[in-house]
Design goal:
The chain is α/β, with parallel strands linked by helices. The protein has helices at 3-24, 31-45, 65-77, 81-106, 109-121, 123-128, 135-151, 158-174, 178-193, 195-201, 206-227, 231-245, 265-272, 276-289, 291-301, 304-320, 335-352, 356-360, 367-381, 390-399, 414-419, 429-437, 448-451, and strands at 52-54, 57-58, 407-409, 425-427, 442-447, 459-464, 468-473, 486-487. It is 62% helix and 6% strand. The N and C termini lie far apart (59 Å).
Length: 496
């Protein structure tokens, strides 16, 4: 296979395979259905200013850009798993396009092609491109900023003149001020140490660019605070200061803190960059012990653009090294710079000394797609392995002829809220027992380990998910229904 065709086949596989998982896999608790339900409420209510955690409870944890995109997708394509995930895929494609155009201009076509292939097939990028998350939009904003700043002295045209400011706007509306910190820290080494880079930044239209940035960003922040006072304090101080400094921050209104030992971000980096991070470390080790390799490293260090991409690749993990409240998705903004560095190293090494393993390196891009194909196959055949309530809710809705809301005892998962269109209700065990005592016909779900604690209340197990069992309690007027739990996704109708 010719190199051009090999590249096209690999890249198409990496880009297209997430679409399969986007269609076949249900939203799994907790992040995906939580964000999807917020977007669904936005699309349903037409309130494009305040994202709502649930009716009457504003969601102050994130700005609205990803919710705007997901709500628009719901309006266009209906409320489906695919529509919820499509905006993340589109944001990833846009980031890849900007990265390719920049690297091709700054280096060459070979480096640009390998850069986007590496970036798209990093495990975190690949997974995030098909998931309901806010991070792909932050990554898009970061890519636009970093490529826009570099292209200021390499390209003309309105887009590249304003790409840096548009990227900041995307980041501020996707994640908030964190975007400014990550971009500022990434460009700082080149700004401080490279006089030519400082000169190129002067070519940016700072007055009109900042005006565009303010027009795009400030109105929403002002309107959000006016509509739900307290937003700015919680979001700016709580989410951006207390969350970073306190690994056990108890002020999170919408979830729990993600406690981890400081420095864990580097373990996450190996996972996020897989398989390329391992290859990069092996390549760096090989170059450092070889005389020819050391010469190549010295030549790379003398290239001022290497410093720029190093800042992009390393600042984010270094920044989160000092935080214990982290997720691996925080590394997404750094993977663009890492991809360019690795691609440049592989291309230069191959040109200097063609070796078989360097020629085979692009095939590492198949690792994430193959892993996804296996995962999707297993989950489709065994849907009860996923933490999702899609099948329980769907079964109760289609076969239960519900005259009352589906009840979840003590715990209402986000996926149950999303798939029931927010009609499922949480009740305490005592309230459920009181209602059952009246002889009322009810469908309810209870965690498997707690089902036995209900005692003999006349409820029949119907269907099981990974965590819950769906039960039916017939009223005095009901006909008999067959008993025996089934696995989610494979149950036959039990209502006779």
């Amino acid at each position: 296979m010719r190199p051009d065709r090999r590249y096209i086949v690999l890249l198409l596989a990496v880009l297209m395979l997430p679409l399969i998982g986007m269609c076949l896999l249900p939203l799994a608790d907790t992040s995906e259905p939580r964000y999807a339900e917020i977007a669904r409420l936005m699309a349903e209510s037409g309130d494009w200013i305040t994202p709502w955690f649930e009716p009457g409870v504003p969601f102050w944890g994130k700005p609205p850009l990803s919710f705007w995109a997901q709500a628009a997708s719901f309006r266009l394509f209906g409320v489906t798993d695919f529509a919820a995930r499509l905006p993340s895929w589109c944001a990833t494609l846009a980031a890849l396009g900007a990265l390719y155009a920049c690297v091709r201009q700054v280096y060459d076509t070979s480096t640009a092609r390998l850069s986007v292939l590496i970036y798209a097939s990093c495990a975190l990028v690949f997974i995030a491109s098909g998931a309901v998350l806010t991070d792909p939009f932050l990554a898009l904003g970061t890519v636009l900023c970093m490529t826009g700043a570099l292209m200021a002295s390499h390209a003309s045209g309105v887009f590249w003149r304003y790409a840096f400011f548009i990227g900041l706007a995307v980041g501020l509306l996707a994640k908030g001020p964190l975007a400014v910190v990550l971009v500022g820290g990434a460009v700082a080494p080149a700004f401080l140490l490279d006089r030519s880079f400082r000169a190129s930044l002067k070519g940016l239209p700072w007055v009109t660019g900042l005006a565009v940035l303010l027009v795009l960003v400030v109105p929403w922040y002002v309107l959000a605070e006016i509509k739900t006072p307290g937003f700015l304090d919680y979001f700016l101080v709580g989410e951006h200061v207390r969350r970073f400094l306190d690994p056990g921050w108890a002020g999170d209104l919408y979830g729990t803190a993600h406690r981890a030992p400081r420095g864990t971000i580097w373990v996450y980096w190996l996972q996020a960059s897989f398989p390329w991070g391992i290859l990069a470390l092996a390549l760096l080790l090989w170059l450092s012990v070889s005389a020819r390799g050391r010469a190549l490293l010295v030549a790379g260090c003398h290239d001022r653009r290497t410093l720029y991409f190093l800042g992009w690749a390393l600042f984010t993990p270094m920044f989160f090294t000092f935080s214990g409240n982290i997720l691996w998705t925080y590394l997404l903004p750094a993977l663009g710079g890492f991809s360019v560095l690795l691609a440049r190293g592989l291309v230069c090494l191959h040109r200097q000394r063609p070796v078989a393993w360097v020629m085979l390196a692009p095939y590492a891009a198949a690792a994430a797609p193959l892993a996804l194909a296996v995962f999707v196959s297993v989950m489709v055949m065994n849907p009860s392995l996923l933490k999702t309530e899609k099948y329980l809710v769907s079964y109760a809705q289609h076969h239960g002829k519900l005259s009352a809301p589906l009840l979840y005892v003590d715990d209402l998962p986000f996926s149950a809220r999303f798939y029931s269109r927010n009609t499922a209700r949480r009740v305490s065990r005592d309230v459920l027992l009181a209602r059952l005592a009246t002889g009322e016909g009810l469908w309810f779900a209870i965690q498997k380990e707690n089902a036995a604690t209900l005692g003999d209340v006349g409820a029949i197990p119907v269907l099981e998910s990974r965590r819950f069992v769906l039960m039916y309690h017939q009223s005095h007027a009901d006909n008999q229904i067959a008993s025996g739990p089934r696995s989610a996704g494979h149950a036959e109708p039990l209502i006779k």
